Amino acid sequence: MKDYPDLSEETLVRMEDMSWFTSAQIFDDLLIVSQQETACFVWKTSEGLVVFDGIWPDAAVYDAIIQAIEAAGWDPDTLCKFVITHGHTDHTGCGKWLVDGHKVTTYLSRVDDAFWRDNPIKPDRPDTWKDFDIDCYVGEGDTIYCGDKAIQVISTPGHTPGCLSFFFPVHDRGKAHMAAILGGSTPPWTDPAGKEVQRQSIDHFVAAAREWGADVLLSTHTAFDKGLERIAYSQARLSYMPNIYVLNREDFENFCDVYKRIIL
Ligand SMILES: [Zn+2]
Description:
alpha/beta; binds zinc ion; 8 helices; Metallo-beta-lactamase, Chain A
Protein backbone atom coordinates (compact mmCIF):
# COMPACT_ATOMS: atom_id res chain seq x y z
CA MET A 1 0.00 0.00 0.00
CA LYS A 2 1.14 3.51 -0.77
CA ASP A 3 2.64 4.97 2.43
CA TYR A 4 1.79 8.50 1.42
CA PRO A 5 -1.27 10.79 1.31
CA ASP A 6 -3.07 10.48 -2.01
CA LEU A 7 -3.64 14.02 -3.32
CA SER A 8 -4.79 14.88 -6.83
CA GLU A 9 -7.12 17.08 -8.83
CA GLU A 10 -9.82 14.58 -7.91
CA THR A 11 -9.22 15.38 -4.25
CA LEU A 12 -10.28 18.96 -4.92
CA VAL A 13 -13.40 17.82 -6.77
CA ARG A 14 -14.39 15.49 -3.93
CA MET A 15 -14.01 18.33 -1.41
CA GLU A 16 -17.17 19.86 -2.88
CA ASP A 17 -19.28 16.69 -2.69
CA MET A 18 -21.87 17.29 0.04
CA SER A 19 -23.88 14.14 -0.71
CA TRP A 20 -22.83 12.36 2.48
CA PHE A 21 -21.15 12.94 5.83
CA THR A 22 -19.93 10.76 8.64
CA SER A 23 -19.15 11.56 12.26
CA ALA A 24 -17.99 10.01 15.52
CA GLN A 25 -17.41 10.92 19.12
CA ILE A 26 -13.66 10.30 19.24
CA PHE A 27 -13.08 11.57 22.81
CA ASP A 28 -15.37 12.22 25.76
CA ASP A 29 -15.30 15.88 24.73
CA LEU A 30 -14.54 15.82 20.98
CA LEU A 31 -16.53 14.97 17.86
CA ILE A 32 -15.25 14.67 14.32
CA VAL A 33 -17.56 15.48 11.40
CA SER A 34 -16.35 14.71 7.89
CA GLN A 35 -17.26 14.50 4.25
CA GLN A 36 -15.01 12.32 2.11
CA GLU A 37 -11.99 14.66 2.01
CA THR A 38 -12.44 17.33 4.67
CA ALA A 39 -13.22 17.16 8.37
CA CYS A 40 -13.93 19.47 11.27
CA PHE A 41 -14.12 19.05 15.05
CA VAL A 42 -16.57 19.99 17.80
CA TRP A 43 -15.09 20.34 21.30
CA LYS A 44 -17.11 20.43 24.51
CA THR A 45 -16.10 22.91 27.21
CA SER A 46 -17.86 24.37 30.25
CA GLU A 47 -18.37 27.60 28.25
CA GLY A 48 -20.05 25.77 25.39
CA LEU A 49 -19.22 24.01 22.13
CA VAL A 50 -16.24 25.10 20.04
CA VAL A 51 -15.99 24.22 16.34
CA PHE A 52 -12.55 23.92 14.72
CA ASP A 53 -12.72 24.64 10.96
CA GLY A 54 -15.83 24.30 8.81
CA ILE A 55 -15.37 21.93 5.80
CA TRP A 56 -17.10 24.01 3.08
CA PRO A 57 -19.55 26.96 2.79
CA ASP A 58 -22.68 24.87 2.43
CA ALA A 59 -25.82 24.49 4.57
CA ALA A 60 -25.42 20.70 4.40
CA VAL A 61 -22.18 20.99 6.40
CA TYR A 62 -23.90 22.99 9.09
CA ASP A 63 -26.72 20.41 9.21
CA ALA A 64 -24.19 17.57 9.53
CA ILE A 65 -22.47 19.34 12.44
CA ILE A 66 -25.79 19.90 14.23
CA GLN A 67 -26.79 16.26 13.71
CA ALA A 68 -23.45 15.04 15.11
CA ILE A 69 -23.87 17.28 18.16
CA GLU A 70 -27.37 15.95 18.78
CA ALA A 71 -26.28 12.33 18.23
CA ALA A 72 -23.72 12.84 21.01
CA GLY A 73 -26.47 14.09 23.30
CA TRP A 74 -24.98 17.59 23.34
CA ASP A 75 -26.91 20.83 22.91
CA PRO A 76 -26.38 22.82 19.66
CA ASP A 77 -27.72 25.91 21.44
CA THR A 78 -24.46 25.99 23.42
CA LEU A 79 -22.30 26.55 20.31
CA CYS A 80 -20.12 29.53 21.28
CA LYS A 81 -16.87 29.69 19.28
CA PHE A 82 -15.63 29.02 15.75
CA VAL A 83 -11.85 28.72 15.59
CA ILE A 84 -10.25 28.63 12.13
CA THR A 85 -6.78 27.44 11.18
CA HIS A 86 -6.47 29.46 7.97
CA GLY A 87 -8.27 31.53 5.38
CA HIS A 88 -9.07 28.88 2.78
CA THR A 89 -12.66 28.10 1.85
CA ASP A 90 -12.39 24.47 2.97
CA HIS A 91 -11.62 25.70 6.51
CA THR A 92 -13.68 28.90 6.84
CA GLY A 93 -16.42 26.58 5.58
CA CYS A 94 -19.87 26.84 7.12
CA GLY A 95 -18.89 29.61 9.54
CA LYS A 96 -21.60 31.86 8.13
CA TRP A 97 -24.29 29.45 9.35
CA LEU A 98 -22.64 29.17 12.79
CA VAL A 99 -22.51 32.96 13.06
CA ASP A 100 -26.06 33.54 11.79
CA GLY A 101 -27.61 30.71 13.78
CA HIS A 102 -25.64 30.78 17.01
CA LYS A 103 -23.78 34.10 17.14
CA VAL A 104 -20.52 32.23 17.71
CA THR A 105 -17.37 34.27 18.30
CA THR A 106 -14.98 33.76 15.38
CA TYR A 107 -11.18 33.43 15.54
CA LEU A 108 -8.55 33.61 12.79
CA SER A 109 -5.20 35.39 12.30
CA ARG A 110 -5.34 39.02 11.15
CA VAL A 111 -3.09 38.14 8.20
CA ASP A 112 -5.34 35.34 6.99
CA ASP A 113 -8.52 37.38 7.41
CA ALA A 114 -7.12 39.75 4.76
CA PHE A 115 -5.72 36.83 2.75
CA TRP A 116 -9.15 35.14 2.74
CA ARG A 117 -10.81 38.35 1.53
CA ASP A 118 -8.21 39.17 -1.13
CA ASN A 119 -7.33 35.71 -2.49
CA PRO A 120 -10.44 33.60 -3.06
CA ILE A 121 -9.50 30.08 -4.22
CA LYS A 122 -12.23 30.32 -6.84
CA PRO A 123 -12.44 33.95 -8.02
CA ASP A 124 -15.39 33.12 -10.31
CA ARG A 125 -17.45 31.55 -7.51
CA PRO A 126 -19.04 34.09 -5.12
CA ASP A 127 -20.36 31.23 -2.98
CA THR A 128 -16.74 30.58 -1.92
CA TRP A 129 -15.81 34.18 -1.07
CA LYS A 130 -15.37 35.60 2.41
CA ASP A 131 -18.86 35.62 3.92
CA PHE A 132 -18.59 36.48 7.64
CA ASP A 133 -16.56 38.70 9.96
CA ILE A 134 -13.77 37.67 12.30
CA ASP A 135 -14.29 38.87 15.89
CA CYS A 136 -10.89 37.99 17.41
CA TYR A 137 -7.50 37.96 15.76
CA VAL A 138 -5.11 35.44 17.31
CA GLY A 139 -1.48 34.47 16.73
CA GLU A 140 1.70 33.01 18.19
CA GLY A 141 1.52 32.44 21.93
CA ASP A 142 -2.10 33.43 22.36
CA THR A 143 -4.51 31.49 24.54
CA ILE A 144 -8.23 31.19 23.77
CA TYR A 145 -10.01 30.56 27.07
CA CYS A 146 -13.10 28.35 26.92
CA GLY A 147 -14.41 28.00 30.47
CA ASP A 148 -12.63 25.07 32.11
CA LYS A 149 -10.32 24.52 29.12
CA ALA A 150 -8.07 26.56 26.86
CA ILE A 151 -6.63 26.48 23.35
CA GLN A 152 -2.95 27.31 22.85
CA VAL A 153 -2.29 29.02 19.52
CA ILE A 154 0.91 28.98 17.51
CA SER A 155 1.70 30.59 14.18
CA THR A 156 2.61 28.13 11.39
CA PRO A 157 2.76 30.14 8.14
CA GLY A 158 3.64 28.57 4.81
CA HIS A 159 0.46 26.94 3.55
CA THR A 160 -1.07 30.41 3.94
CA PRO A 161 0.74 33.50 5.26
CA GLY A 162 -1.25 33.59 8.50
CA CYS A 163 -1.84 29.89 9.11
CA LEU A 164 -2.39 28.83 12.75
CA SER A 165 -2.08 25.57 14.66
CA PHE A 166 -3.81 24.66 17.91
CA PHE A 167 -3.23 22.59 21.06
CA PHE A 168 -6.10 21.75 23.42
CA PRO A 169 -6.90 19.09 26.06
CA VAL A 170 -9.23 16.17 25.38
CA HIS A 171 -10.26 13.19 27.49
CA ASP A 172 -10.68 9.51 26.67
CA ARG A 173 -12.84 7.73 29.24
CA GLY A 174 -11.66 10.29 31.74
CA LYS A 175 -7.95 10.13 30.91
CA ALA A 176 -6.42 13.43 29.80
CA HIS A 177 -4.65 13.81 26.46
CA MET A 178 -3.41 16.82 24.51
CA ALA A 179 -4.73 17.22 20.97
CA ALA A 180 -3.04 19.14 18.17
CA ILE A 181 -4.28 20.45 14.84
CA LEU A 182 -1.65 21.42 12.28
CA GLY A 183 -3.22 24.27 10.30
CA GLY A 184 -1.85 23.82 6.80
CA SER A 185 -1.21 20.37 5.36
CA THR A 186 0.63 21.28 2.16
CA PRO A 187 3.14 23.94 1.05
CA PRO A 188 2.39 26.60 -1.58
CA TRP A 189 3.59 24.35 -4.43
CA THR A 190 4.85 27.03 -6.81
CA ASP A 191 6.66 29.19 -4.25
CA PRO A 192 10.13 27.92 -3.17
CA ALA A 193 10.32 30.45 -0.32
CA GLY A 194 6.90 29.36 0.89
CA LYS A 195 8.06 25.73 0.96
CA GLU A 196 10.94 26.68 3.25
CA VAL A 197 8.60 28.64 5.51
CA GLN A 198 6.32 25.58 5.65
CA ARG A 199 9.29 23.35 6.63
CA GLN A 200 10.22 25.71 9.46
CA SER A 201 6.60 25.86 10.63
CA ILE A 202 6.39 22.08 10.88
CA ASP A 203 9.58 22.09 13.00
CA HIS A 204 7.98 24.78 15.16
CA PHE A 205 4.82 22.68 15.45
CA VAL A 206 6.79 19.58 16.51
CA ALA A 207 8.71 21.61 19.11
CA ALA A 208 5.47 23.07 20.48
CA ALA A 209 3.90 19.58 20.53
CA ARG A 210 6.78 18.40 22.76
CA GLU A 211 6.34 21.42 25.01
CA TRP A 212 2.61 20.82 25.38
CA GLY A 213 2.91 17.04 25.58
CA ALA A 214 0.66 16.51 22.56
CA ASP A 215 -0.22 12.86 21.90
CA VAL A 216 -3.19 13.30 19.53
CA LEU A 217 -2.63 14.64 16.01
CA LEU A 218 -5.89 15.54 14.31
CA SER A 219 -6.17 16.11 10.58
CA THR A 220 -8.79 18.17 8.78
CA HIS A 221 -8.00 16.26 5.57
CA THR A 222 -8.83 12.57 5.54
CA ALA A 223 -6.12 11.75 2.99
CA PHE A 224 -3.45 12.33 5.64
CA ASP A 225 -4.64 9.95 8.35
CA LYS A 226 -6.98 7.44 6.71
CA GLY A 227 -9.54 9.69 8.30
CA LEU A 228 -12.66 7.87 7.14
CA GLU A 229 -11.31 4.54 8.38
CA ARG A 230 -10.39 6.08 11.74
CA ILE A 231 -13.94 7.43 12.05
CA ALA A 232 -15.40 4.01 11.18
CA TYR A 233 -13.15 2.38 13.81
CA SER A 234 -14.24 4.94 16.40
CA GLN A 235 -17.90 4.26 15.64
CA ALA A 236 -17.36 0.53 16.20
CA ARG A 237 -14.89 0.77 19.09
CA LEU A 238 -15.71 -1.32 22.14
CA SER A 239 -14.77 -0.36 25.67
CA TYR A 240 -11.68 -2.59 25.80
CA MET A 241 -10.25 -1.32 22.49
CA PRO A 242 -7.69 1.51 22.28
CA ASN A 243 -8.45 5.02 21.07
CA ILE A 244 -7.02 5.13 17.54
CA TYR A 245 -6.28 8.85 17.77
CA VAL A 246 -3.87 8.54 20.70
CA LEU A 247 -0.22 8.30 19.64
CA ASN A 248 3.08 8.07 21.50
CA ARG A 249 5.62 10.81 20.86
CA GLU A 250 7.57 8.82 18.26
CA ASP A 251 4.45 8.09 16.20
CA PHE A 252 3.24 11.67 16.60
CA GLU A 253 6.53 12.90 15.15
CA ASN A 254 6.53 10.24 12.41
CA PHE A 255 3.10 11.54 11.42
CA CYS A 256 4.41 15.13 11.37
CA ASP A 257 7.26 13.92 9.17
CA VAL A 258 4.74 13.17 6.41
CA TYR A 259 3.97 16.87 6.19
CA LYS A 260 7.66 17.48 5.49
CA ARG A 261 8.08 14.55 3.10
CA ILE A 262 5.40 15.88 0.76
CA ILE A 263 7.35 19.15 0.34
CA LEU A 264 9.31 18.35 -2.81
ZN1 LIG B 1 -5.73 25.34 2.95
